[in-house]
Amino acid sequence: MTYTSFLVSEFLLIWRRKQDVINVLLFFIIAVTLFPIGVSSSPEFLASAAGGIIWCAAVLAILMAVEGMFKEDFRDGSLEQWVVSGLSLPALILLKVVAQWLAFLLPLLGIMPLLSEMLFLPESSFWVLIMTFLLGTPSLFLIGVIGAALTVSLRQGAMLVMLLILPFYLPVIIFSTLAIQAAEANLPYSGQLALLSAMSLLSLVISPFMTAIAIKASAS
Amino acid sequence: MQSSVSLTISGLWIERGERDLCKDFSFSAQSGEVVRILGENGAGKSSLLKVIVGVISPLEGKIVYSGEDVTLDRNPLQQDAIYIGHSVGVKNLLTVAENIRCYCPDVSPETLDTVLKQLDLLDHIDALVRTLSAGQLRRVALARLWLTEKTLWLLDEPFASLDVGAIALLEERIQLHVSSGGLVVLTTHQDLRSLSCRDVALLS
Amino acid sequence: MNWTWFHKLGSPKWFFHRSKAWALPLFAVGCVGLIVGLIWGLVFAPADYQQGNSFRIIYMHVPVAMLAQSCYFALGVAGFVFLVWRMKIAPIFIKAMAPIGAVMALIALVSGAIWGKPTWGTWWVWDARLTSVLVLFFLYMGIIVLQKALDDQVLANKAVAVISVVGLINLPIIKYSVVLLETLHQGPTFTLTKKPEMPSEMWLPLLVCAICMYFLMAGLVLWRMQSEILKREYRSSWVREEVMKRGL
């Protein structure tokens, strides 16, 4: 196995399992539509809450996507093969996360114009929303895989991952919604974006190693 | 392929869950040998292979590969080893060729065709592994033995779910490998027909 | 420097015998001290000129809230110790400590709510410190649930250590991020560098309560650890001897 061949087969697998991406996307859209129906559909409320609504729905959708990431690999023995491949396990994990991130984020960004229109998000803050997604979601994926790796040996791990990981997502949601709110109020928002990037970089440093420990413990 | 390799294990103590699988277990082997680990069900044969290749950490003991102490960092051994466990690491949603290319990316199409023909998989080369039988799935995993140049083979029940023809083929391949300087450690419950091996008993 | 004590700490047997004599005295000192501190605070300390007698819940609230945070810090450190040195005692410590921390966080939340009603006129506000204690409670629950869900001891040990370390790294970030939300809460009562703003008749009993709370908890944790050690090491001969000699 080499890093390239690993990445190629990961992309092939994502392509064969594209239904998963579509499911997560649908879940995301449905979760967003709950808010106008359940809370208030007045444009004033939605415009001010749009950033928060989209982010909350996205966090749940991403956790859904990440939660089962290693299940299949655990079942068919691939995890063992990663461990013994002689390649660096954190690097393999990072490659897999990058592949998954691209696979889920691009469609997510693709429907963002539609959703922001539906929620009356002011046009000026649309690009800030996109920026927060680009800078913030790597951290969500990287933290999420730690939970996925810890619970990989459990048959029903989804709920546990939610419990375990959602508290860690709080800062990302806070920084993102603050950035969007700042943009709406015509205030500078670069500070919040910098914080988001810092979160992602920190997760990038820690998560592959922590996930590798969890994967190794689960594979044995 | 390296000219000569050796594997020495001393004072190995493996614990799984609440049980001690083996305590103070030692053996050594070198190039040209087929070592068969014997033991009852649950004696820890699979765990022993996993410890050697570095999936599990032993409580105590020392593992030396070709003169290098790999107890703490199994990487030098892993670089030179193929491990095929109970779950073989073959992806259901990839085709036979894609699966093999994941593990052996540099293999040429001609070689791949020849080996797959031997293994009776050529007709299924572009079929998703999901559609194959258990025996065919194992053969996809075993194709690695023909296509990669690694010295140390650690095979956990390699003959499981194979038919007579495939067993003979695999034994032949193992024979060829050890005669050209390879080292094979395997566990099996089947009697080996043509293959001569050294037995190491794992007593609990 | 001699490091043998540090490595010995990894042996549950050594720890068990060493800590055996400590649990009860720590617990007793903590209990007595806490009762003294509470009576002092509740009866003898002067009433607050703004909040009247309702402020007296501080003698419960602050020690508990301090503990809830220090417990998590200790968990993170133990997790780190386990991942680096594979010290067997660390996951036992985490398992013993996590429920105590969760209860502390819960008491802090409830006592805070009770205090909030007369002072702020509401049981709950989405204030920075309240939210961070709530998150802390969730983090504790995560550890406990994960520990319970994983049957395999080796995996469970690793898993709780990983999540504790990740939690320790993230906790300051979470706390900082919620500070960006508005804050209603008064500043911390004790800091290391400044004298408290309260009169000493008020903060002295609080200090006694806080310190004794730590003792109480240390005793509790030791007890829980000892019973966990007995449970995990039941196969070994020294546990059998121990049980035969002294009974359960």
Automatic annotation (TrEMBL), chain A:
It is a multi-pass membrane protein. It comes from the Bacteria. The keyword Transmembrane applies. One of its GO terms (molecular function) is heme transmembrane transporter activity. One of its GO terms (biological process) is cytochrome c biosynthetic process. Its main location: membrane. Pfam families: CcmB. Keywords: Cell inner membrane, Cell membrane, Cytochrome c-type biogenesis, Membrane, Transmembrane, Transmembrane helix, Transport. It is found in: Cell inner membrane. Required for the export of heme to the periplasm for the biogenesis of c-type cytochromes. This is Heme exporter protein B. It comes from Marinomonas foliarum.
TrEMBL record, chain B:
The keyword rRNA-binding does not apply. Transmembrane segments: none annotated. Coiled coil: none annotated. Residues 7-204 form the ABC transporter domain. Pfam families: ABC_tran. One of its GO terms (molecular function) is transmembrane transporter activity. GO terms for biological process: cytochrome complex assembly. Keywords: ATP-binding, Cytochrome c-type biogenesis, Membrane, Nucleotide-binding, Translocase, Transport. NCBIfam families: ccmA (TIGR01189), PRK13538.1 (NF010061). This is Heme exporter protein A.
TrEMBL record, chain C:
GO terms for biological process: cytochrome complex assembly. One of its GO terms (cellular component) is plasma membrane. It comes from the Bacteria. One of its GO terms (molecular function) is heme transmembrane transporter activity. It is a multi-pass membrane protein. The chain crosses the membrane at residues 21-45, 57-85, 92-116, 128-147, 159-182, 202-223. Pfam families: Cytochrom_C_asm (PF01578). Required for the export of heme to the periplasm for the biogenesis of c-type cytochromes. Belongs to the CcmC/CycZ/HelC family. PANTHER family: CYTOCHROME B_B6 PROTEIN-RELATED, HEME EXPORTER PROTEIN C. The gene is ccmC. It is found in: Cell inner membrane; Membrane. Coiled coil: none annotated. Keywords: Cell inner membrane, Cell membrane, Cytochrome c-type biogenesis, Membrane, Transmembrane, Transmembrane helix, Transport. It comes from Marinomonas foliarum. This is Heme exporter protein C. Residues 31-185 form the Cytochrome c assembly protein domain.
